[in-house]
Structure formats: structure tokens, C-alpha cells
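Good morning,

Attaching, inline, the C-alpha cells for the sequence recovery test we're adding to the shared suite. The designed sequence is right after.
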């Protein structure tokens, strides 16, 4: 047997001994991402020198546009909500025929969020048209595009997103598009999975590739994990010193030690490398607080649009001079569990005759798409083994369901390594096929 033949036989044996469903697991040494603390990675993301080189804003042919999908909202919303009666989005276009990527933002995030901007630059640099869309849980999407303004039922959110995508395409009939691609991060990744499933029957886009970045597997588990972070006990926070005062004091001392204020995207990484860095408990509280603000925004907006009277009295006059602070404070007392119990489940049961909370949880999570995900080769998942939104059994589900279409990174927290150059290269390689 020749050397080449022996090599071919060895390779064949190796392939046969490796399960075809095995996920692609990167070991920490070869991966090289430097932040092994999941909270720190979530907040500080990637050191600037390890990020991919991307085009500047002025080198991208882009503009913001708006579509009117729910004209009745002009009469349903208070007068000072006029800016969100149209849904805004961002389109970056190439100068020649090219594939188009839709990007769906994460929980509560607008189309212009920092992660959506990063992904836009990444895909644009590789020759794609890019459309950035707000999350169905953002107040602007709820007001301007959501039929029921009660996000959380994934099939309904996907339907709303699909209508938006169709409206965006109709607004640019001259844009030369060769194929359609879809991605989303965090909750936007879960939305992308349901949009892809919907497209299998409606066939408006026939997405060529769909990439899910750090999706919640069981949505309720992820929500519970994030809500619990707010309850973290933080040293230095007491009746006299709030958590915000503690963080503000650390930032003040950090800038005093540097001798100048430099607010850039490298700030948090550099801050965490300083003596003023946040502890694990403080970082957990910061992540949880950010999520609690998103929950409050959802609860407040959904209640206001639907006139439920849980947070804002139904006939309370709201105009440009009305302070919304008292209502937002009331909304902050309602975590995501509260929103689900008081607004989401009642709406779902009324519309669908639905049953228990457990039934809803299964329907709105990736578990509800298990057969579709298992048999759809165009869909891939990229996730982190230490992601704070994952619960027991979630990674096992992804391994069984996605097989070799799951890329699992050892570190990165929740979306913290998306702007790491290895992740960037893997994303581009997947879309290139």
C-alpha cells in the first residue's frame, strides 16, 4: 500500500470512528480567547487588538429608513410617541448585486445596537447587503410593528418580523439581491430560528443560511438566570450606598487615575484591567440590572399600548409634559416573571385557548423547533460553554439536535466573544458555505 493509500485509509477510519453528529468543540488553548470569567467577557467583550479589522462608518454606503406597518397606532399611542409610529431600520448596500443578510437584535435592543453595528460591518466587509432590525421586544418594534404588542410568543414575534422583512424588501425594489441570509444574537437568534421555520411555508426569502448566535435554548430558563442576577448580594451596597453610586465611584476613580476621560469601545476592557475593576458579584448585578431595565421597558410599553391598566391607568392623559418616571418605577418592580404572568400568558390564552405555562415555555423555545433544527442543514448555532443564559440540559439539547452544525467555544460568556477575530472568521466561513 502506498503512503497516500495508507493516509486515505487512516483518514477514512478516523472519519468512521467520529460520530457525524459530534459538535465542533474548541479547546481553550487553541481558541485563545483571553477572558475566562463569563461575567467579565459578557461586559468587556474582546480586547481591541484581538478584534477583526472592519470598515469605518464613512466607508459604508448606508442609511436609515422607516416603514409604516400599523397606522392605527397613531390613534392608540399618546401624542408624544409619534417617533415610534413608524419602524426604523438600517440598510447598508453594496454597489453591485450581492446577497443580503438580515440581522435581528437581542432583548430590548434597537437596530442600531453596538452588536448589530458590529455584525453589519463584519458582513458588509465580506460583500453582503445588510439590514439591521430591532428586537420584537424593543419599544419601537412593539409600537410600530407588533400586532399584539406583547412579545414573548416566538411564533407571533416571527410573524411580525417576517412582515417587516417583506416591507423592507418592497421599499427597495432596485436593490440587486442574489440570495437571502439570516442571523440574530441572543434573543434575536431565537427569533431567527422561528423566522426561518416560518419561511419554509411562506417561501418569500428561501434563506440560504441561518446563523444563531448565543440563542436561549429554553427561554424561561434564560430569563430566570438573568432575573436572579439582580438579587446578587454586593459588598459595599447598603442603605446608604446604592449599586449605581458604587459603580459610578469606581468609574470616577478610574478616570482620575488615568488623568483623562476616554469613552470608547475599549473602555470596559481597560476598566476591568485596572484596580477599580468590578467583582464577580458587581458584574452579575450590572448584567442583571441591564436585563431588568429591558423587562421594565417591555412591561411598560405593552401595558400602555394595550390599555391594560397594570402600570399606566388606561385613561391617564400623557403628553409632552407628562413625567413617565412614576410609571417606569412601577414597571421596574415587575420582573420578566411578572410580565409573563400578568400580560403574556393571559394574552396567549385568550388568543389561542392555550393551557399551562409549561406548554407556552415549550412552544416559545428551541425545544419547540427540535425536529426542524435537526433536519435543516442550512441552520447553524455558535454558542459558549460558559454562557450565563444556559441551564442544565441546554447544551445537551444543542449537541443532539444540531450535531456538527454546533460550534461550541469554551469561553466568552453571553455574546462577549462575537467580536473576537476567530468567531468573526467562523461566521463568515459559515455564510460562505
Amino acid at each position: 500500500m502506498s503512503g497516500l493509500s495508507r493516509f486515505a485509509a487512516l483518514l477514512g477510519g478516523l472519519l468512521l470512528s467520529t460520530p457525524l453528529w459530534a459538535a465542533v468543540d474548541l479547546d481553550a488553548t487553541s481558541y485563545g480567547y483571553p477572558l475566562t470569567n463569563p461575567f467579565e467577557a459578557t461586559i468587556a467583550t474582546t480586547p481591541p487588538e484581538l478584534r477583526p479589522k472592519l470598515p469605518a462608518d464613512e466607508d459604508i454606503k448606508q442609511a436609515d429608513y422607516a416603514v409604516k406597518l400599523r397606522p392605527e397606532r397613531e390613534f392608540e399611542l399618546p401624542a408624544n410617541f409619534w417617533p415610534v409610529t413608524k419602524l426604523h431600520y438600517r440598510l447598508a448596500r453594496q454597489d453591485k448585486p450581492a446577497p443580503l443578510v438580515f440581522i435581528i437584535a437581542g432583548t430590548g435592543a434597537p437596530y442600531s445596537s453596538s452588536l448589530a453595528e458590529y455584525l453589519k460591518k463584519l458582513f458588509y466587509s465580506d460583500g453582503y447587503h445588510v439590514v439591521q432590525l430591532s428586537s420584537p421586544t424593543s419599544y419601537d418594534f412593539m409600537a410600530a410593528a407588533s400586532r399584539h404588542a406583547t412579545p414573548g410568543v416566538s411564533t407571533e414575534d416571527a410573524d411580525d418580523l417576517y412582515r417587516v422583512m417583506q416591507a423592507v424588501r418592497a421599499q427597495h425594489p432596485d436593490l440587486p439581491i442574489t440570495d437571502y441570509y439570516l442571523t440574530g444574537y441572543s434573543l434575536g437568534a431565537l427569533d431567527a430560528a422561528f423566522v426561518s421555520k416560518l419561511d419554509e411555508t411562506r417561501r418569500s426569502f428561501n434563506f440560504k443560511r441561518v446563523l444563531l448566535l448565543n440563542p436561549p435554548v429554553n427561554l424561561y430558563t434564560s430569563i430566570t438566570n438573568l432575573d436572579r442576577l439582580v438579587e446578587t448580594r454586593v459588598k459595599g451596597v447598603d442603605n446608604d450606598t446604592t449599586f449605581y453610586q458604587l459603580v459610578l465611584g469606581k468609574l470616577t476613580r478610574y478616570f482620575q487615575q488615568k488623568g483623562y476621560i476616554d469613552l470608547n469601545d475599549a473602555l470596559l476592557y481597560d476598566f476591568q484591567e485596572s484596580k477599580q475593576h468590578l467583582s464577580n458579584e458587581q458584574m452579575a448585578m450590572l448584567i442583571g440590572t441591564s436585563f431588568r431595565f429591558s423587562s421594565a421597558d417591555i412591561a411598560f410599553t405593552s401595558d400602555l399600548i394595550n390599555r391594560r391598566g397594570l402600570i399606566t391607568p388606561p385613561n391617564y392623559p400623557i403628553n409632552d409634559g407628562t413625567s413617565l418616571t412614576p410609571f417606569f418605577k412601577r414597571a421596574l418592580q415587575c420582573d420578566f416573571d411578572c410580565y409573563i404572568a400578568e400580560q403574556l400568558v393571559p394574552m396567549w390564552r385568550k388568543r389561542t385557548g392555550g393551557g399551562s405555562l409549561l406548554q407556552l415555555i415549550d412552544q416559545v423555545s428551541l425545544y419547540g423547533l427540535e425536529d426542524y433544527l435537526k433536519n435543516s442543514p442550512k441552520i447553524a448555532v455558535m454558542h459558549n460553554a460558559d454562557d450565563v443564559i444556559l441551564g442544565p440540559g441546554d447544551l445537551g439539547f444543542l449537541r443532539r439536535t444540531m450535531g456538527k452544525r454546533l460550534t461550541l467555544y469554551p469561553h466568552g460568556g453571553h455574546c462577549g466573544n462575537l467580536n473576537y477575530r476567530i468567531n468573526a472568521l467562523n461566521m463568515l466561513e459559515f455564510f460562505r458555505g
